[in-house]
Amino acid sequence: MSTLVTKQLCNKYAEYATKVLYSELTKTSPPPPPSPLSLSSGQDQDHHPLKCPLFVTWNKNGNLRGCIGTFAPQSLPDGVRKYALIAALDDPRFPPITKDELPHLECHVTLLHSFEDITSSPLDWQVGVHGVHISFSKRGRHYSATFLPQVAPEQGWTKEETMDQLLAKAGYPGSWHAVVNDLQQLNVERYRGEIGHFSSL
């Protein structure tokens, strides 16, 4: 996967996601998706991914306003359109974004790739390079959580602090070092992602 093409892909789809939300909130005609040629610098359509896992993030004045995605590969542009609206209107942590907020929004679209199961140390990943997904069981209950590659450096977290925050996000109490040996069926996965940005129309 070409980094240049993927970065361009994310930027174009961040713009597209913003237009999708604008049309939804203003009740105007939905935007056409980006053309394959505009996404791939004139190359053939096969040079950019047609399906991939993705997350759409909305920020307002630098603060998180919604972020939802999926690890299941999504067809582009359908997946971007779907999760642009879910992240904006159905993130349970926030009230739905309103039309009045549109001028203050920034959209990030992150396309995920290079998934790898970590079979050695759960800390075998790099801050600022990898996203991390954990899943485990404890007393018959299943827990899971993820952070995208950009989250740890944005927050200034170390690897250990990131793992602590993942446990908290999953709803499990305790620090990573205190509980890591007690977790059942622990799976840690690292992945990479390219992120695109677009400010409000």
Automatic annotation (TrEMBL):
TM helices/strands, residue ranges: none
PANTHER family (UniProt xref): AMME SYNDROME CANDIDATE GENE 1 PROTEIN, AMMECR1 HOMOLOG
Region of interest (Disordered), residue spans: 25-45
Protein name (Swiss-Prot/TrEMBL): AMME syndrome candidate gene 1 protein
Coiled-coil ranges from the UniProt annotation: none
Matching InterPro entries: AMMECR1 (IPR023473), AMMECR1_dom_sf (IPR036071), AMMECR1_domain (IPR002733), AMMECR1_N (IPR027485), AmmeMemoSam_A (IPR027623)
Organism of provenance: Pichia kudriavzevii
Xref: SUPFAM superfamilies: AMMECR1-like
Source species taxonomy: Eukaryota, Fungi, Dikarya, Ascomycota, Saccharomycotina
AMMECR1 domain sequence ranges: 8-201
